[in-house]
TrEMBL record:
PANTHER family: TRANSLATION FACTOR. Belongs to the TRAFAC class translation factor GTPase superfamily. Classic translation factor GTPase family. EF-Tu/EF-1A subfamily. Residues 1-141 form the Tr-type G domain. The keyword GTP-binding applies. This is Tr-type G domain-containing protein. It comes from Aegilops tauschii subsp. strangulata (Goatgrass).
Amino acid sequence: GHKSYVPNMISGASQADIGVLVISARKGEFETGYERGGQTREHVLLAKTLGVAKLVVVINKMDEPTVQWSKERYDEIEGKMIPFLRSSGYNVKKDVQFLPISGLCGANMKTRMDKSICSWWNGPCLFEILDKIEVPLRDPKGPVRLPIIDKYKDMGTVVMGKLENGTIREGDSLLVMPNKTHVKVTGINLDEKKVRRAGPNENVRVKVSGIEEEDIMAGFVLSSVANPIGAFTEFNAQLQILELLDNAIFTAGYKAVLHIHSVVEECEIVDLIEEIDMKKAKVTDPKKKKTKRKPLFVKNGAVVVCRVQVTNLICIEKFSDFPQLGRFTLRTEGKTIAVGKVVDVPPVGRSTFSA
């Protein structure tokens, strides 16, 4: 896709557990996506941050005249992608599968590869791989968390999103956060089907009474009354800086756009707390980890703990409690500059750290 579509890709990928990364085998096309600033790189990093646990890497256009199902070309692409996927945080042996396809001819998609087309591929086809992948577990008995992606009027107010945790039943009383509005569930739809209840991982449409459609924004979270999600205007995060814009340095005062589950908000880095040396952090005993003095600025590739501030209340969780609601990306001028996770939020009942 075009780089202006990345924000849409973010909102889609944040609902997924499994991603299919499509790479073109055509000469020049793989290279464009893979070089610095290419879409293939950006999509992989975003997928990992947004919680896509497993990847199927599909090498497409294998029928192309410059490729003609060449094993050398397939191996070259796989050889370049593996180290990059590893550095992005994927366990390549466990969570990534590669396969060649031709979307145009439909080869190796629904049925296994015809040997007359490609003699060297003995593996499964795309649909087989997708049917076998195990989806990560979520807690159906836990507190309800449903980040709202969209809302509309249809004989009442309907919200859409992916139920990340808990179970919703018709008749339930829930809370829309951050504006603390009590609502009642009057109907639940999965695709076009009306259902009585929905469990974690489902993309649902929930009809609620007690709130007007204009009082809901994308990024609000439908949550249980007993254990609601917190709403904050600041949080501490561990960030990995990927690629700053030319000549930019990352310091307190840096402004960017924060994407966290279905929230898109402008934010400012108000304080750099410490820089983490990933090489040393792994080797030494974590208890003896020396905190470095506070950095004034950090460069590309750095991992830093910092405090992030936004103007409007946003609903987030610590990454250690709810990974799906605690990981985010920072973007400026249409480029992803950093990925991160929420490491600390203000105490219960407060939206900021200082009283």
